[in-house]
Amino acid sequence: MKITLLQTDIVWKNTEENEVKAERMILSAPEADLYVLPEMWSTGFITDTEPEAKEYGRSLKWMKDMASRSHAALCGSLAVKGEDGYCYNRQFFVLPDGNICTYDKHHLFKYGGEDQYYQTGNQRTVVCYQGFRFLLITCYDLRFPVWTRYQGDYDAIICVANWPESRQDVWHILLRARAIENQCYVIGCNRVGDDPNCHYIGHSAVIDSRGRTIVEDHEERELTLTAEIDKDSLQAFRQKFRVLDDRDIFHLTPR
């Protein structure tokens, strides 16, 4: 499967410009089966802005239209105001046929005030697409290995993020740690540029099940990264080096 990461410089609270930018990047990139956008790709990492969360339908429609036009899936998170009246940092995996799978971010970033405006999601989401099983996580979730622990249910982790330069070393380490401990691919899509609170330098990457880098950004600018992942080689490695047979089995009870 061919995956393209869209490492965008998100324009603060400018949905239209961010959609135009992402569309241009998709159309100019090599054809892929899956395009991955950063966390809150249409607005930037907003917290106390309910109006933008109410308007998420526009960006979701754009994702559906682009998935149909490109004959590929799109993945990325949006600030959403749900029918229950609460706001969620919701990741969407949009299939070319228009079907949608969602994941609501479980670990809200209290240090940045995210928990003051968003509700916690309590369900893991695994999406099946073209023979691969993808576990969806969002940014801060990457720090919590229990939540992402392999339970015989996925082949790759997709992590969409707004991960700032000040904690860039942690991003590098955790992407590889999650890949190694779960013997899976890890797809990490981060942003570049600035918002009112942080500076971002990207370093989006695709890591294989041995912790080796397939592709990674070192230019610290807006760009696309394309990588291929292979289910057969993953299964062969899991069969040969059977680390997962010795993992601890436990029942996960979300807090």
Key words describing this protein structure:
about 260 residues, alpha/beta, 6-stranded mixed β-sheet
Alpha plus pi helix count: 6
Q: Over the alpha carbons, how many angstroms does the gyration radius reach?
A: 17 Å
Strands of the widest sheet, in order across it, are: 5-4-3-2-1-14
Shape annotation: globular
Give the biggest sheet.
Answer: 6 strands, mixed
Main structural class: alpha/beta
Question: Could you outline the blueprint of secondary structure elements for this entry?
Answer:
Blueprint: E1 2-7, H1 15-28, E2 34-36, H2 50-54, H3 56-70, E3 73-81, E4 87-94, E5 100-104, E6 126-129, E7 132-138, H4 145-148, E8 156-160, H5 168-182, E9 185-189, E10 192-194, E11 199-201, E12 205-207, E13 213-216, E14 223-228, H6 231-240
Parallel strand pairs: 1-2, 2-3, 7-8, 8-9
Antiparallel strand pairs: 1-14, 3-4, 4-5, 6-7, 9-12, 10-11, 12-13
Helix pairs in contact: 1-3
How would you sum up this structure, described in words?
- With 255 residues, the chain is an alpha/beta fold.
- The strands form 3 sheets. A 6-stranded mixed sheet has the order 5-4-3-2-1-14.
- It is 25% helix and 28% strand.
- The chain has 6 helices and 14 strands.
Outline of the structure:
With 255 residues, the chain is of the alpha/beta class. It has 6 helices and 14 strands.
